[in-house]
Structure formats: C-alpha cells, structure tokens
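Kindly go through the entry underneath: sequence plus fold tokens. Please state briefly how this chain folds according to its tokens.
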Amino acid sequence: MDNITHAAFGVGVFATYTAIAGAPEPGAVATAACVAAVVGAEWPDFDLLFQIFSGPVRYLYQHRQISHSIPLWFACSLIVAAIINFVVPVHFWLYAWLSFLGTLTHVGLDLLTAYGTKALWPISKRRFRGDILFVVEPVYLLLFIVGCVLIQLGTPYDATVYAIDGFALLFTLRRVGLRAWLTRRFTRWLSQQACFDGTTPPVWRVLPTIFALPHGYKYVVQQGQRFWFGSFSWKGDILPEAHAESANGNAVQHVLQYSRVGRAMSWFAPMLFVQVEDEGQWTVVHLSDASVRYVDTLPFSATVDLARTAEGNYVVVHEGIRAQPIYFTKLWQDTFRALGKRRSLHIPNPRGYRSKPRV
C-alpha cells in the first residue's frame, strides 16, 4: 500500500482513539499522540532505504520482511514512543499504544495486497498475500479527505469519525466479498477447462486493480512453463486474453543461477515468466512477475544480457531490474480495456540498464 494511505490510516487511528476516549490533552500532547500514530503507520516501510542506498536488488530481498515482522511491531513502537516521550514527556504508554495500532494498520493493509508480507516471522517464514486490495486505493484517501473537510466545517467530531471508519470498513468488506465471488466463479470455470492436464495442478491467482468492480479484476494461471492470462466482465464472466509459454534452457538457468537480478526475481516473484531473444551478439533474457499485468505489459521485470565466451559459456554483460508494481501510464487503460481481446505480452526493459554497471 502507498505511504499516503498508510499516513491517513495513522491519523484515523488517532481520530478513533480521541472519539472513544477523548483527546488526551489539548496542544502538545494531542499533537504528539497523533504523530505517534502516524509514525507507527509509516515506519515499517523503512526498508525503502535499501532501495535508496543499496539498490533495487537488496531492496527486493528486504521488502516487507523483517520490517513487518512480529518482533519489530513491538520494538519499533516502543522506540517511537521513547523518542516522542523525550520531546513531550509523561505519556510514554499512550504514544506506544497508538504507534502499535498504527503499525497494525500498516501490516494489515500490506497483507491484503498482491505482494503481501512476511508478517508472522519468526513464527512463519511464509509471505502472506491477500490479493484483495490494490497497491493504491483512492477510496481510502477520498474518505480521509471527506472526513477532514467535514470536521473543519463543524460536523460532530465523534459521529464523523465513526462514519468514516464505517465506510472504510464497508469498502474493505466489499473488496473481500467481490474477490471471494470472482474466485468461486473462476475455480468453477477452471475445473471445466480441458487445456489443463492432470500431471501438475495449476497455480492461479485472482488479482485486483484500482477499481473495486468485477471488470477491475484479472487472473493468471500457471501450469509448469505454461501461463494463461485473462480478466472478468462486468457480470463476472471469465474472459481469456493471452496464453504464453515461459522460456527455459541454458541461458535462463545461467541467469537464475549467476545473475543477481535473476536470483532476486526468482526468489521474489511468485509466478516467474521468462522470454528470451537474440540481439546481435547477445542473448537477452527478460524476466517478469506474471501476476503484475497492465493490459499487455508485465512491468515488474528484469533484463539480463548474456554473451558467449570463447569456450562457449555464458557470461553476464548487463543486468537491470524494474521494480514497478504500478504502471501509471496504463493504469486507466488497464481498467477500461477491451474485454477478452487476445494480446501478445510485452516485458519492458529497465530504463538505461545498459548504461549502468552491474547491480
């Protein structure tokens, strides 16, 4: 989930607390309590520092892992409270409690997205992916803005806060119900398809886009090296859009074993899709996460250029990664696209990756 939405939920935590218990005190303490809730809702994304200082590969290995884990829920909430209490003292446990609640909203929202998080580490090393919320949900931001405006206009504070909380909960439940309904229809359809042999059970996902409408969802199915992509109509009908086979072979295996971005994509992407092409003296290997698709484009991708040595072995020449879960230029087109149109899939190259040293 985006950081603006996380901050809005932090403010929501503080507003709900004050609606229930009353403001702790006017002035500095109330401000400090609000800051504690907002910082608590934001700090789990400190792993963004890995992208800034260590590059996208280290970032993928760290993203939504230790920073979202159970030990840090408590440790960082206490650290946030200690820092704020040093500035505005006496209310340490209030700050810690609000920071902890803000942290829970952050982890909970991320759990419901397609990328999920390893929230239960060290109890479980599994990455939990809800596939319920899109990585940006404008409805939450709209509710936040409406609530702020209404309070500024003088509407009753408690009633406004409870109403905004209720609408946010209803929207989340709509997302849950909509995906459950589409999943039920999809699994029924999938069981009737003769194209899936019985040797390997298919792996599938039903994924949201920015609009909470049946048309705003898509699916991907993987069986071995074969992939099927499609979407849903306004009525929830299943509409196939693409069928492709992921490349394999020596070049791909070399990339997955010896390229840093290849290893990172193989580790991070739950459904790895690969294309290979020859470009002059290079063999170019394109890797992508098949569960992130905008119309005909798989933007969460990496590209590796391979050359042959005199002995005939592969060597990595260039490599780059495009860690882009949101493709803004195709976001609107993706939701209001032509339903069921057959498509050829495209994996974009990371911008300027050949002009950079190996990451």
Observations:
- The mean pLDDT is 89.
- The chain is about 45% helix and 15% strand.
